[in-house]
Amino acid sequence: MFHEHLPALHLAYSNPIVRQLLIEMHVIFEKCRQSAQLGRITALETLSISREYRSALLHCADEIGGDDENVYMRDFTIWTLFETMFFKQGDTPICLDLISWGLESFTFIDKLVQKAFKELDEGVDVGGGSYWRTVCMTLIGCRFDTCIDFLSLLKGDKAAERFINILSNLDWNWLTDEGKIPKLDRWKHELASALSSGAFTSNRNILFLAQLLNGDRKVSVF
To answer: Which residues form a coiled coil (predicted)?
Structure first.
């Protein structure tokens, strides 16, 4: 049987979504080339071009779906981190920039949240199914309000109540004001003291979350 072997570029252009991405990228880089001919590209122009580029990647990922979505989301996430590290003006603390990067890039967490809520609606017990994985990912992704919403479903759990109270008191905007760093230090001390006193030992999952939030190395790689 005869098999036609198309070049890789032809295969790429055979998908209308990928074809549109390639066209958008050409437009973006042509704009970059033209700007460079007029003189050195400014920081604001570089940032604008970068945002157009990752916007095209995100649109492609949303449209293409399936296994290929992960490929484009990976590229989007990596490029967004590159933009955060090298193209932004640097007028905010890097920790805050990385939090913003996570909130924007880790869209898989939103899908986990939807899945967990669907399971709860279908009668899966709190703590079952994808519940704890979702709680962990919302904490890592700095979606603290959503994390608290899930943990609040653990009625009568003293460890969860203590953790919710501590997490509720955390405001990452403290990072933007040197005068508020002492508040962050006091919060960190409160968390460390609660861990030392065994406040979370009655629920090993909550203990893991508290250790993770505290930056304990033994749970940082899981």
So the answer is: none
CA torsion angle for 99, 104, 105, 111 (degrees, to 10)?
110
Length of the chain (residues): 222
Are residues 19 and 100 located together in one domain of the fold? yes
Q: Which domain holds residue 58?
A: 12-105
**Span 168-193, pLDDT tens digits:** 999 888 877 888 889 999 999 999 99
Record the pTM.
0.73
How many whole angstroms separate alpha carbon 137 and alpha carbon 5?
A: 43
Q: How far is CA 102 from CA 47, 96, 135, 138, 153, in A?
A: 18, 10, 15, 10, 25
Residues 80 and 160 reside in one and the same domain: no
Backbone angles phi, psi at 129, to 5 degrees: 60, -135
The per-residue pLDDT for range 202-222, each reduced to its tens digit, is 999 999 999 999 988 776 554
Number of domains in the chain: 2
Let me know if residue 110 belongs to a domain: no
Angstrom CA distances, 212 to 16, 110, 124, 203, stand at: 43, 20, 26, 14
